[in-house]
Write a structure and sequence with these properties.
The structure holds two protein chains of two kinds. By secondary structure, chain A is mainly α. Chain A has two domains: about 70 residues, Rna Polymerase Sigma Factor, Chain: A (Orthogonal Bundle), CATH 1.10.1740.10; about 90 residues, Arc Repressor Mutant, subunit A, CATH 1.10.10.10. In chain A, about 60% of the residues lie in helices and about 0% in strands. Chain A contains seven helices and no strands. In chain A, α1 packs antiparallel against α2, α1 crosses α3 and α5 packs across α6. The longest helix of chain A is centred in the first third of the chain and has 20 residues. Chain B has a single domain, classed as MucB/RseB, C-terminal domain (Phosphorylase Kinase, domain 1), CATH 3.30.200. In chain B, a hairpin with a 2-residue loop joins β6 and β7. The longest helix of chain B has 27 residues. The chains are: A mainly alpha, B alpha+beta.
Chain lengths: ~170, ~220
């Protein structure tokens, strides 16, 4: 299978990640389309034998960052994080719809890390490479994302729930 | 359970929930716009298509003027799926009451279903611009697994069918080739994972190749 075919094969994976990242379907497919256009034009920069999927996620990350930079400044979700209307009481029962809404409310940096690790099953190292950040940053962003998710889904203020210890 | 184990269990639960949430997207048909290849590649593919189509037409003209020997040589190379496509066309296109299994009114379902069964993304090209409206489609048995079969017709009821099968070797791209099978004329080509055969009994080859080009361009926007 050549690179071009491998890219085509990976389109569903890119769409899944983009939808989780960008939310709305059209915006997500726009992100995929921009990513693919960039990937096709930069294919000569891809080193054969390395992980094509990781490379494509890096391209998507860069496109996503540029799109956000170009968009009007948004409210910092770090500060503005209203509780969901109906917090889920039971700790183990994640209501998927609420989870989706909660993912949307994460700051984009943390959302990316969370999705690469928990949805795309990347190792911390792979996620660090894909995003071009140190592995420690991956771990701290992931921890913050999980803490916020837990807070949103349980209706507790961030930091009020059980803390996750990061083992380095 | 200590905190670290608890943390890993939480992460695993979260991961499962995320997969439940977003995995259905993997099964969605990929929008056509995402299949667009770079302009350079497309230009080459289309140009190659035209060149070989030109050779085919030239060969046919030659065959008409001279003897049938060269055409016989071509005929022996016709792949089995082209014959199957021609037979399917001859079987279903005269059908009045049940020409298709799923009608064009359920196009999205039809395409999703056929894609699922073929294990590859298939699409029903839109040919309304050249006067062919989708009637619907059906699933057929092929020599290589399930086959998708789309039917189109003009307002006057002229029908063409598009036979789409998965290719055993996924790495090929061929341009248009032409064959006849009884009174059915077929243009066929292979595009990456899928093999296509466009059949008609009542179109001339010049008209049929125009349709074949429209189909190709729809599938490779």
């Amino acid at each position: 299978m050549n690179d071009a075919e491998s890219i085509v094969e990976l389109i569903p994976r890119l769409r899944r990640y983009a939808r989780a990242l960008a939310g709305e379907r059209t915006a997500a497919d726009d992100l995929v389309q921009d990513t693919l256009e960039r990937a096709w034009s930069k294919l000569h920069l891809y080193r054969r034998g390395t992980d094509l999927r990781a490379w494509l996620f890096t391209v998507m990350h860069n496109v996503y960052v540029n799109q956000r930079r170009a968009a009007r400044p948004s409210i910092s979700l770090d500060e503005e994080m209203p509780e969901l209307a109906q917090p889920v009481g039971e700790t183990d029962t994640l209501v998927l719809r609420d989870l989706d809404a909660a993912i949307r409310r994460l700051p984009p940096d943390q959302r990316e890390v969370l999705l690469l690790v928990a949805l795309e099953d990347m190792s911390y190292d792979e996620a660090a490479h894909a995003l071009g950040i140190p592995i420690g940053t991956v771990m701290s962003r992931l921890a913050r994302a999980r803490e916020k998710l837990r807070a949103m889904l349980s209706g507790l203020p961030p930091g009020g729930g059980k803390q996750l210890k990061i083992v380095k | 359970m200590n905190d670290m184990e608890q943390g890993e269990a939480d992460l695993k639960a979260l991961s499962q929930a995320l997969h439940q949430l977003y995995d259905p997207i993997l099964e969605e048909p990929v929008p056509a716009r995402l299949h667009a290849r770079p302009r350079r590649w497309r230009a080459i593919a289309i140009a190659a298509g035209w060149v070989v189509a030109g050779i085919c037409v030239g060969a046919l003209a030659g065959w008409q003027l001279h003897a049938s020997r060269s055409m016989v040589a071509l005929q022996t190379e016709v792949p089995g799926f082209v014959k199957r496509a021609a037979v399917a066309h001859a079987t279903y296109s005269p059908e009045v009451r049940h020409p298709v299994e799923v009608g064009a009114d359920q196009e999205q379902h039809l395409v999703a279903w056929l894609s699922k069964r073929l294990g590859a993304q298939v699409r029903a090209p839109k040919l309304d611009a050249i006067g062919y409206n989708l009637v619907g489609g059906r699933l057929l048995p092929g020599d290589n697994g399930p086959v998708a079969h789309f039917m189109y017709q003009t307002e006057k009821g002229r029908r063409i069918t598009l036979y789409v099968r998965t290719e055993a070797t996924e790495n090929r791209e061929t341009a248009f080739r032409y064959a006849t099978e009884g009174n059915v004329k077929v243009f066929y080509w292979i595009d990456r994972k899928l093999g296509y055969a466009l059949s008609s009994a009542d179109l001339g080859r010049d008209d049929l190749i125009k349709v074949a080009n429209a189909v190709y361009q729809q599938l490779n926007p």
